[in-house]
Design goal:
Length: 123
């Protein structure tokens, strides 16, 4: 055990604790310094956010511009209505109109549509 009286003791027994602020001036100075550090951290985070946002916006606009040119090229290469399959595009269907409604179609066949002229027993 250390019995040297010159060694400072830590703890509740009157030893030195480095976190105690004793004067009013030191407390105010600590408060002001903490507020300045907090304000500086907020300012730095705003600047970093602005730089990242600007970079993402520039990349997004560049990508949109490249896709715009590509879309224009694809529209010029696309055959008009009534044309057959294009080069390497496979079979294309010509739409009857531009109104496309997706859903399920349930069709009950009429008697005239059945083979044999409407007689369900004749195939």
């Amino acid at each position: 055990m250390d019995t040297d009286p010159s060694t400072p003791k830590l703890g509740r027994d009157g030893g030195q604790t480095g976190s105690r602020v004793r004067s009013l001036f030191a407390r105010v100075l600590t408060l002001v310094a903490g507020a300045a550090v907090l304000a500086g951290a907020i300012a730095v985070s705003i600047v970093v956010f602005a730089i990242v946002f600007t970079g993402l916006a520039v990349v997004g606009i560049w990508f949109w511009w490249r896709m715009r040119r590509l879309r224009k090229q694809m529209q010029t290469l696309q055959p008009g209505p009534g044309a057959g399959p294009g080069p390497g595009l496979g079979p294309m269907r010509t739409p009857v109109d531009d109104n496309v409604i997706e859903g399920e179609v349930i069709r009950r066949p009429r008697k005239d549509d059945r083979p044999g002229g409407g007689n369900p027993h004749q195939v």
